[in-house]
Specification:
The structure holds 3 protein chains of 3 kinds. Chain B is mainly beta. Chain B contains 2 helices and 13 strands, in the order αββαβββββββββββ. Chain B has one domain. In chain B, a hairpin with a 7-residue loop joins β10 and β11. By secondary structure, chain C is α/β, with parallel strands linked by helices. Chain C has a single domain, classed as Thiolase/Chalcone synthase (Peroxisomal Thiolase, Chain A, domain 1). Classes of the chains: A mainly beta, B mainly beta, C alpha/beta.
């Protein structure tokens, strides 16, 4: 684009920097219910809209009719493996010592699902299998997705 | 319609404490390519000089330098050194750091200023700091000069200029009424 | 120009708060649902959705538009986020206006959301990243600084004292006492403002609007649909937006020329020749008190340098000749950036319908204006409404 060439002996170079802020997110109206139940009771709940739709993780509004989901119903700990993958690298590109199994678990009659680690023998794993959440001991639970250790074969 | 009731309550400190939260400390680091104009600019700062680019069509002498004129929308034409002196266009006396955290009592304020650099086109200002001056002695329009880091400490950054300090004169010029500029 | 008439037919807004428990999508949902209910519509009636939200760094969510999608009712719809920094809240309805005026759809929902409380240690920190990464960020600037720099230059140019500017904060915070969404409504004196903590002289803590969480939404309709939905449509008669250079330190800080350009664009479209006579109620953007004055001048609502005097004379009070920020503005209602701009549009909508309750300005206004501003002293967005 420019007629001139780069001046000799001058490197354009680059300038380092970072975005130095951090965040504290509230889990929200429905999120608070959902994760508090995991923490205190060790099972999943779904939020339910008056139109009948249920959501896991619980969400405050219905994607279908845009009504407010005011009811929460117990779903338990058991779901169905919708899909899975075997991961060799973490999000920064470092290789895992052992490959990680990661799955999307769906729950009966519920929209949504939970993505989490799986602890299932590779020769047993199949899409559609019944799985069950294994939680940390209650005292160690804080009300986050990390309260779930993994899903195992039911 | 009437809007007299609105949803959302807001949390008191106590309720906020109780609410479930999750925190995230992102580590996102960047290396921003300087490109030609800023690359040269930083290179010259390291040498203790300020360099501008000139657009021969609108005759603007521009800092920070840029390889295209955003008004004429054509490549700029040449490099030109400008002075490391200027005048204060405006300033503030800050008791807060960049993240709005307070500067501790007893520590001097930070004095950011827009400085119109001598030799650049009128109104070409830089954001920098003022130093070696009491806040109450600063006037808009005041002449200032760059105080540079020692040469061996310069890294090729706008912070190679530590701050601008007043050029002390007997009769400091009065603030000029704002003139029309493009 | 071959464009269709567009009306605002419904509105919703949350309370503006320091810390909401609601997530961003939940805030957006509350405002959207209220807007739909206000004009008896269901989400399925809405054909397109436009969302306004300011920098991703506030909510701390990359791709914030997509994150807010569900709460803004955008699932499986033509949905798009728009963004011009602090100008977003008035640009969002302009964007929605394009959808309807062009004939692309008859019903468009406009949603604006901001959740600033997630950003720590303070949302101001996120502003560091809007400065040039190489030539400015190393000096560690904050947005408060550049407001202070602009305010100083403005005050110097017209010989204003802190008290002249503080009257805006007093007025707006008091007006906000009547706004159900208000976060920092209070009856204060000029002395309270000028004696509040100095953050960056000349800016005191009470010269500044707070950081807030909140959301707002409006429903836009084409003419034939609007007339079916309401007997009091408020028409979008003029829109304008304009951006000036990112080299913010190289321009006249005492006068927002880009706001004037945006205003002239909107006035031309609305057929307004003498804005200071024809605009009957206005909501210019007031994140800092001097900005209201700055913007009144940029919007040609008064002569340059006159805004402070007019404020002192009560000209801009709710019962004055030209009520400015009768809502209470960002200074009183709060400032969840994008939602603030839309709050201002909603205020004019209500004022023109005569439905602003205790905030209602006298004289049955027919023509009003809302304006937002943002980026690095860069953008003006203006909307002119008529009934």
């Amino acid at each position: 684009m420019y007629k001139e060439k780069l001046e000799k002996n001058i490197e354009c170079g680059s300038f380092p920097g970072q975005i130095p802020v951090n965040y504290v997110y509230t889990l929200g109206i429905a999120g608070d219910e959902f994760f508090r139940t995991i923490r205190d009771k060790g099972y999943f709940i779904a939020s339910k809209c008056s139109c009948g739709k249920k959501y896991i993780p619980a969400q405050m509004y219905c994607d279908e009719c845009f009504g407010e989901c005011k009811e929460y119903v117990k779903v338990g700990t058991e779901g169905e493996l919708y899909s899975y993958t075997e991961c060799y690298y973490d999000y920064r590109g470092n290789k895992y010592d052992e490959p990680h199994l990661l799955g999307l678990v769906k729950f009966r009659d519920c929209e949504g699902g939970i993505i989490h680690r799986l602890k299932i023998n590779k020769d047993e794993i199949r899409i559609g299998m019944k799985v069950e959440a294994v939680f940390k001991p209650q005292k160690q639970r804080t009300g986050s997705v990390e309260d779930i250790l993994y899903f195992k074969k039911k | 319609m009437k809007i007299d009731k609105v949803p959302v309550k807001g949390l008191s400190s106590k309720e906020y404490e109780k609410a479930l939260k999750i925190s995230w400390d992102p580590v996102l680091k960047y290396n921003w390519d300087n490109g030609k104009a800023i690359g040269r600019y930083l290179h010259e700062l390291k040498k203790g000089r300020i360099i501008a680019r000139v657009c021969d069509k609108c005759n603007r002498i521009m800092i920070p330098p840029r390889m295209f004129c955003e008004y004429c929308f054509r490549p700029t034409d040449r490099w030109q050194y400008v002075k490391d002196t200027g005048k204060v266009n405006t300033f503030a006396v800050s008791r807060v750091y960049w993240n709005a955290q307070r500067i501790p009592q007893g520590e001097p304020p930070i004095i950011p200023a827009v400085i119109e650099i001598d030799g650049a086109s009128e109104g070409m200002g830089l954001l920098h700091l003022l130093g070696n001056v009491e806040p109450e002695d600063i006037k808009i329009g005041m002449k200032v000069r760059a105080v540079w880091k020692p040469e061996n400490e310069r890294t090729g950054s706008i912070t190679d200029i530590l701050y601008f300090e007043p050029v002390r004169e007997k009769n400091p010029p009065k603030a000029k009424p704002a003139a029309k500029r493009r | 120009m071959g464009m269709r008439k567009v009306a605002i037919v419904g509105a919703g807004i949350t309370k503006f708060v320091r810390r909401a428990q609601e997530t961003g999508p939940e805030l957006a949902y509350q405002a959207s649902k209220m807007a739909l209910d206000s004009c008896g519509l269901k989400l399925k009636d809405i054909e397109m959705i436009t969302l306004g939200t300011a920098p991703d760094a506030f909510d701390g969510v990359h791709m914030k538009g997509e994150y807010l999608l569900g709460g803004a009712g955008g699932n499986k719809k033509p949905y798009i986020r728009n963004f011009v920094g602090g100008g977003t809240g008035v640009f969002a309805p302009i964007h929605g206006w394009m959808h309807v005026a062009s004939g692309m759809c008859d019903l468009c929902m406009v949603v604006c959301e901001e959740k600033m409380s997630s950003c720590h240690p303070h949302p101001q920190g996120a502003f560091l990243t809007i400065f040039d990464h190489t030539t400015e960020q190393p000096i560690k600037p904050t947005l408060i600084w550049i407001f202070a720099l602009e305010m100083k230059r403005y005050m110097e140019t017209y010989g204003l004292k802190p008290e002249d500017v503080a009257r805006v904060a007093v007025k707006n915070k008091k007006n906000a006492l009547d706004h159900p969404s208000a976060q920092v409504a209070e009856e204060l004196t000029v002395e309270d403002i000028v004696n509040s903590e100095v953050l960056a002289d000349p800016v005191h803590r009470l010269d500044i609007s707070p950081a807030s969480d909140g959301a707002a939404a409006v429903i836009l309709a084409s003419e034939h649909v609007a007339k079916r939905l309401t007997d009091k449509p408020v028409w979008i008669e003029g829109v304008g937006w304009n951006l000036d250079t990112a080299y913010w330190a190289t321009k006249d800080l005492y006068y927002p020329r880009y706001v004037e350009k945006a205003a002239r664009m909107a006035y031309d479209m609305a057929g307004i020749k003498e804005p200071h006579k024809e605009i009957q109620v206005a909501e210019p953007y007031d994140p800092f008190d001097y900005k209201e004055l700055h913007h009144m001048e940029g919007l040609l609502l008064c002569e340059r340098g006159e805004a402070a005097r007019l404020t002192a004379e009560g000209y801009t009070a709710r019962d004055g000749n030209l009520p400015i920020c009768p809502s209470g503005g960002a200074l009183g209602v709060g400032n969840p950036i994008a939602a603030t701009g839309l709050m201002k549009v909603i205020e004019i909508f209500l004022q023109l319908r005569g439905e602003a309750g205790k905030r209602q300005v006298p004289g049955n206004p027919r023509v009003g204006l809302a304006q937002a501003w943002g980026d690095l002293m860069q953008v003006g967005t203006v909307i002119v409404l008529k009934r």
